[in-house]
Design a protein that fits this description.
The protein is α/β, with parallel strands linked by helices. Helices cover about 35% and strands about 25% of the residues. The protein has 8 helices and 10 strands. It is globular, with a radius of gyration of 19 Å. The protein binds adenosine-5'-triphosphate and magnesium ion (MG).
């Protein structure tokens, strides 16, 4: 099936950090995320997951290789084009990264304030976003007054504020209990289906991938060791790292 231009296309992406020695965090990564995908990236700690997400989010500069968003090489964009691209990509993190001195409403409004939207438009859009994430009754609360799941909902609403086409999620549920995790994953699925937002989700938990992803790549030591469609790819895993992540021992079949 021809799927058209990928929303994210990565070719030959490498990232080497130089400290007192060289760390090859990403090695020659190729990746296609199609519109509408919920794409999981799974791997152990230190595998390079966050580095990959940070390169796509323009928070890190690749050492080599290309990242295209809807066919445009992001390293070539400047000025207005770069600002427009940043609006296309929402990011959420395990630690929420909320502004503690601002209410829920004003956290969600923050990106819209940066875009110099009118007061009326900000109020209208914030109400809409509060509704989408189910926090209308917490609009005037401060982050310190919220549970972890509620904080992540605020972060999701803020990430959606500028109507992005993609949401990048770095371990969004790793600090949450299993019931709250389920509700956040359900919210991400609803956003994907109802708003047509493509999702990339980084995790070390196989349950997260099984719950929501239609595709997955397994990353180990900066390399993609396996990638494909769910659930087929995990039916007869032969790769040792994949088996480890699945909790399969030598003797399990
Ligand atoms: N700014 C940096 N400077 C030097 N080394 C870094 C930097 N950021 C990441 N690294 C190294 O790159 C490798 C990949 O790190 P990364 O944070 O991408 O892993 P990860 O898969 O997200 O791990 P975790 O699951 O623990 O979050 C690690 O060896 C890490 O120490
Ligand atoms: Mg990480």
């Amino acid at each position: 099936m021809s799927e058209g231009t990928p929303i994210i296309q990565i070719r030959g992406l490498s990232k080497t950090f130089v400290t007192d020695h060289e760390i090859m965090a990403l090695r020659n990564i190729d990746l296609d995320v199609q519109k509408g995908d919920i794409f999981g990236i799974i791997g152990m700690s230190g595998a390079g997951k966050s580095t990959l997400l940070r390169c796509i989010a323009l928070l890190e500069t690749p050492t080599s290789g290309t990242i295209e968003i809807e066919g445009r090489d992001i390293s070539t964009l400047r000025g207005r084009d770069l600002i427009a691209l940043r609006k296309q990509i929402g990011v959420i993190f395990q630690g929420y990264h909320l502004l503690m001195q601002r209410t829920v409403r004003r956290n969600i409004a923050f990106p819209l304030e940066l875009e110099h939207k009118s007061k009326e438009e900000i109020a209208r859009r914030t109400d809409e976003l509060l509704e989408i994430v189910g926090l209308s009754d917490k609009a005037n609360a401060y982050p310190s007054q919220l549970s972890g799941g509620q904080k992540q909902r605020v972060a999701i609403a803020r990430a959606l504020a500028s109507n992005p086409k993609i949401i990048l999620c770095d371990e969004p549920t790793s600090a949450l209990d299993s019931v709250t995790t389920k509700s956040i994953l359900q919210l991400l699925t609803d956003i994907n289906r109802n708003l047509g937002v493509s999702v990339m989700i980084i995790t070390h938990e196989i349950g997260v991938v099984r719950a929501i992803c239609n595709k997955v790549a397994v990353i180990n030591d900066g390399l993609f060791v396996e990638q494909g469609e769910m659930p087929g790819i995990f039916q007869k895993p032969t790769n040792a790292v994949t088996r480890l992540l699945l909790g399969l021992g030598e003797e399990d079949e």
